[in-house]
Design a protein that fits this description.
Number of strands: 2
Shape: globular
Helix content: 40-55%
Largest sheet: 2 strands, antiparallel
Structural class: mainly alpha
Distance between the termini: 22 Å
Order of helices and strands: HHHEEHHHH
Strand content: under 5%
Amino acid sequence: MPADLYRSPVPEQLWERIRTEFHLPSLEQVRERLSAVHEDPEPVIRQLVRVFLDGGTYCPGYQFRPDQTLEPVVVALFERAMELRIPHNYFALWMMVPSPALQGTRPVDLVRSSDASVLLAGLERTFRDKAA
């Protein structure tokens, strides 16, 4: 894995991998689904991981539980990523690639089985020198 992974353009294959493994609905599709469940979906929408591709905004499916609620660990990780000023697309990349800070495991694979503090520490270690 290149040392400058989080400074280079995000590989196009990542989006296809997310789409295949977790789905990658548009923000409008997610807004529509959330509107069916919430009278005011905006508070939930503000917590969403969003990625920006080809002029559109998409929401990686790994942040949703099977009942379409948000995965709290992903929400916490994304909130910290925003505090560290990690661009949305690089956060999505970090979630999907094996992380040396997490013993070579993809963060997305640890979301439901690890303490959030382990993932938060991995996020911070990865971006320590890259945060603005």
